[in-house]
Amino acid sequence: MTWLVTGGAGYIGAHAVKRLHAKGTNVVVFDDLSTGLVSRVPEGVPLVVGDVKDQAAVVAAIKEHGVTGVLHFAARKSVPESMKIPVEYYRDNVGGLVSIVGAIAETGVERVVFSSTAALYGLAPEEFLVEDLVVDPISVYGETKLIGERLLRFTSKTHGFSWIALRYFNVVGADSPELRDTSVGNLIPIVFRAIDRGETVQVTGGDFPTPDGSGIRDYIHIADLADAHVVAVDHLDAVAAGSVGEVYNVGTGKGSSVLEVLGAVREVTGLPVPHEVVDRRPGDPARGVAGVDKIRRDLGWTARHDLREMVADAWAAWRA
Ligand SMILES: NC(=O)c1ccc[n+]([C@@H]2O[C@H](COP(=O)([O-])OP(=O)(O)OC[C@H]3O[C@@H](n4cnc5c(N)ncnc54)[C@H](O)[C@@H]3O)[C@@H](O)[C@H]2O)c1
Ligand SMILES: O=c1ccn([C@@H]2O[C@H](COP(=O)(O)OP(=O)(O)O[C@H]3O[C@H](CO)[C@@H](O)[C@H](O)[C@H]3O)[C@@H](O)[C@H]2O)c(=O)[nH]1
C-alpha cells in the first residue's frame, strides 16, 4: 500500500505524513509549496512538486510510485479569504478534488481520505453537531468542502473507490516547531502573537447565548487529528475496495469558550493576557462542538488531549 499525500508539506498533512512514515506506511507527498514547506517533509519521503489541478501530473505521480490511496489535504483554508476571492476557492478546492478523482478514475486507485471541515455546519443550532445533520454552510470555504464530500459520494459509486471525509474542528498545536502552522489566522496563535507584541486580544463577541457570552468551539490537538488519519488509512486499507463512504467529525466533543481559552493560555504561560470584548465577526456561530460517537463507534478513535495540553504544546512550539 502506498499513499499519495496531497498538501503533505502543509501543517496538518505533514503531521499525518510523519506518523504514517514512522509506522512504516509508504507515503509520497504531492504539493505545490504554495503554503507548504519542504522542511516539513521527512527524509526518505519522496516529494513531487506540482499542482493538484494538473490531473496529468497527479496521474504520473500515482503511476510512478504505485499509489493505492490518496490523502487529499491540498486546499485553501481561510473562511474570511474565501468570501473575498470565492472563485479561487472553488477553483482550488473543488477543481483540485475533481482532478484527484479524475486521476483516480484513470488509474484505478481505490481509497481516498478527504480533509473536510466543521465550517460546513454553518449556523446549525444543535448542541452537538452530528454527521447526518442537513447542513447549510455560510462561507464559500465550507461550501467547497460540502461539495467535495458530495462529489466523493457520487463518483465513488461509479469508480468503485472507498472514501472517508474527516470534518476537522478547531485544530491546535504542533509536534515540533518545524511542523507548526505558520499562518496566524486562528485564535490561539493570535493570542500568542498578542502576548509577544504586548497587544490586547480582541474577543470577537461577548453577547453570544453561551454561559460567559463568548463563542464556544471544539479545539482538537493536532496529534489526535493526525492519529485520526492513521486510523482512517488503516481502516480503508483493511476493507474491500468501494465498500466504505463515510463522513466523520474529528473533535473532542467538549466545547471551550474564548474566555476559557484565554484562561488556559494565562495558566500555561504564566503571563497576563489582556483582552477587550469587541463586536462579533460576521457569520460567527455561537457554538460549534462535535458529536463524536460515530468516529468512536466505527473507527475506535477518540481524542486524548485536553485544552490545557493543546495550549501547552502550541506554546512550546511557538516559543522554540
Ligand atoms: N487548519 C485548520 O484549522 C483546518 C480546519 C479544517 C479543515 N482544514 C483542511 O485541512 C487541509 C490542510 O490544512 P492545513 O491547515 O494543513 O493548511 P496548509 O495551508 O498548511 O496546507 C495546505 C497544503 O496544501 C498545499 N497546496 C495548496 N494548494 C495546492 C494545490 N493546488 N496543489 C498542490 N498543493 C497545494 C500547500 O502548499 C500546503 O502544503 C485543508 O484541506 C484545509 O481546508 C484545515
Ligand atoms: O482574534 C480573535 C479570533 C477569533 N476569536 C474567536 O475565537 C473562536 C475561534 O475562532 P477561529 O480560531 O478563527 O476559528 P473558527 O472561526 O472557529 O474556524 C476554524 O475552525 C473551523 C472548524 O471548526 C475551520 O474550518 C476553520 O478553517 C478554522 O479557521 C471564535 O469564537 C472567534 O470568534 C476571537 O475572539 N478573537
Q: Helix fraction?
A: 40-55%
Q: Which whole number gives the mean pLDDT?
A: 97
Total count of helical runs of at least 4 residues:
10
- Regions with little confidence, pLDDT below 50 for 5+ residues: none
Shape: globular
Give a written overview of the molecule.
The protein has 320 residues and is α/β, with parallel strands linked by helices. The chain is 41% helix and 18% strand. The strands form 4 sheets. A 7-stranded parallel beta sheet has the order 3-2-1-4-5-6-11, sandwiched between helices. The chain has a 3-stranded mixed beta sheet with strand order 12-9-14. A two-stranded parallel ribbon has the order 7-10. The protein has helices at residues 11-22, 55-65, 79-84, 86-107, 140-159, 187-197, 222-238, 258-269, 293-299, 307-319; strands spanning 2-6, 26-31, 47-49, 69-72, 111-117, 162-168, 170-172, 201-204, 216-217, 219-221, 245-250, 256-257, 275-278, 287-288. Strand 5 (111-117), helix 5 (140-159) and strand 6 (162-168) form a beta-alpha-beta unit. The model has no long low-confidence stretch (mean pLDDT 97).
Key descriptive features of the protein:
binds uridine-5'-diphosphate-glucose, 320 residues, binds nicotinamide-adenine-dinucleotide, alpha/beta, 14 strands, single chain, 3-stranded mixed beta sheet, 7-stranded parallel beta sheet
Briefly characterize the structure.
By secondary structure, the chain is an alpha/beta fold. It has helices at residues 11-22, 55-65, 79-84, 86-107, 140-159, 187-197, 222-238, 258-269, 293-299, 307-319; strands spanning 2-6, 26-31, 47-49, 69-72, 111-117, 162-168, 170-172, 201-204, 216-217, 219-221, 245-250, 256-257, 275-278, 287-288. Helix 2 (55-65) packs across helix 4 (86-107).
